[in-house]
Design a protein that fits this description.
Layout lengths: L2 E8 L3 E9 L5 E10 L5 E7 L4 E7 L7 H16 L3 E9 L10 E2 L2 H9 L8 H14 L5 E5 L9 H4 L5 H5 L9 H10 L9 E7 L3 E7 L2 E5 L20 H10 L4 H10 L2 H6 L5 H6 L3 H25 L4 E5 H6 L1 H10 L19 E2 L8 E4 L4 H15 L1
Parallel strand pairs: 1-6, 6-8, 9-12, 12-14
Antiparallel strand pairs: 1-2, 2-3, 3-4, 4-5, 7-8, 9-10, 10-11, 13-14
Helix pairs in contact: 1-3, 6-14, 11-13
Length: 395
């Protein structure tokens, strides 16, 4: 496979990447998965081939990866050596926010890049990092096609009432609305529904991980989701608070003299499972702990998922299937069991033995369950690669 395609997923403290080779019939085959973790601190560069064999595992000095641009340069120069003259067709990027501009993936030109920069205030902790590798590649390989794929785009199919915030209209005109996120993950699951014999069904997908949300799908399209204007909304997450009475923010400002930056740190990095437990943001660590506060954190997580399942079932007018994905959703049998037990009133009944599986794509429903329940591994990077390839074909 001489031609290849690169997908970049830049987060707040890491840059993950997947290199795909293209077969003669343009099928995408994973060649490498890798990342630079610990950007801004002690960096670690790792990469493995499709079989999981380590290609590199290198510790990086803090000064070498103080910025995302530096971390990307590490990846870029290593890939140059690996590719050895092979054709890199394009690079696809996960962009958290497309604002009101972008409902579909777009080839990136100067105008698109400038518009994406204007959206930084809507996602200040994500968007700048998403854009950094794009800027670097524009300098290094200015003629290489780059494609932006948006986490918000999948939710544009929601009715206007689902997007609307009950604020004066002037704020909506400046972009204050419910957007929804994790869209690339939900799109991947939506594309799989026909294979699960769920095409046209009313489905709720639970993307449960460090960041967590639910999405209601009808005929494979987003109807409602738990995240709103920002990725803070909805479920209890690893370090994010989820739904919060805005009066709490006024109270914190008045009585703790917290400004916007202090609130940002509190709500994004010190709350959620970590805030309730005081121990960890990691679900596996909390489940293994006997500490009362760890148990309360788990209880809060499950409770909020159960509440939101009911809300999304109402938006759908019923539920015919439930799909778990994300790190927790795919690997924690006990969390799936607790959530499904809480959702028994919706018709969810699971096979306890089937639920003990830890990997792959599998059903955990009882044969007589009114709601088909599945565990599916999502693949955002493959979704980005497909979009990128499709846009190249129309270029």
């Amino acid at each position: 496979m001489s031609a290849c395609l690169l997908v970049i997923n830049a987060g707040s403290s890491s840059i993950k990447f997947t290199l795909y080779g293209l077969t003669e019939d343009t099928d995408l085959a994973v060649e490498i998965n890798g990342q630079v973790a610990g950007v801004g601190a002690q960096g670690q560069f790792t990469a493995s081939d499709a079989a999981g064999n380590k290609l590199i595992d290198q510790q990086l000095q803090p000064h070498a990866v103080a910025l995302h641009s530096q971390a990307f340069e590490v990846i870029y120069h290593w890939l140059l050596g690996y590719l050895q003259g092979r054709t890199l067709l394009a690079v696809g990027h996960r962009i958290v926010h497309g604002g009101q501009f972008y409902a579909v993936p777009r080839l990136i030109d100067d105008q698109v890049f400038e518009q994406l920069q204007t959206l930084i205030p809507l996602a200040p902790l994500h968007q700048p990092h998403n854009l950094s590798p794009i800027r670097e590649l524009q300098k290094l390989l200015p003629t290489l096609p780059q494609v932006a794929c948006f986490d918000t785009a999948f939710h544009y199919t929601q009715p206007e009432v689902a997007h609307r915030l009950a604020l004066p209209r002037k704020f909506a005109e400046s972009g204050l609305r419910r957007y929804g996120f994790h869209g690339l993950s939900y799109e991947y699951i939506a594309n799989l529904l026909p294979q699960l014999k769920l095409a046209g069904a009313r489905v709720i997908v639970a993307h449960l991980g460090s960041g967590a949300s639910l999405c209601a799908l009808k005929e494979g399209r987003s109807v409602a989701t738990t995240m709103g204007f920002s990725p803070l909304d909805g479920l209890v997450m690893g370090t994010r608070c989820g739904s919060l009475d805005p009066g709490v923010l006024l109270y914190l400002m008045d009585h703790y003299q917290m400004d916007a930056r202090a609130l940002e740190k509190l709500l994004y990095f010190q709350s959620g499972l970590l805030g309730i437990s005081g121990i960890s943001a990691d679900m596996a660590t909390l489940l293994a702990s006997q500490d009362m506060h760890a148990q309360e954190a788990v209880e809060s997580f499950v409770y909020r998922v159960g509440r939101e399942l009911g809300s999304l079932a109402a938006a759908l007018g019923g539920i015919e299937a439930l799909v778990f994905t994300g790190g927790i959703g795919e690997h924690s049998a006990i969390i799936r069991e607790l959530i499904c037990n809480q959702a028994a009133w919706l018709g969810v009944t699971i096979d306890i033995v089937a639920n003990q599986q830890q990997s792959g794509r599998f059903s955990i429903s009882k044969s007589d369950s009114a709601v088909a329940t599945w565990v599916v591994q999502s693949d955002e990077n493959l979704m980005i690669a497909r979009h990128t390839l499709k846009l190249l074909a129309t270029k």
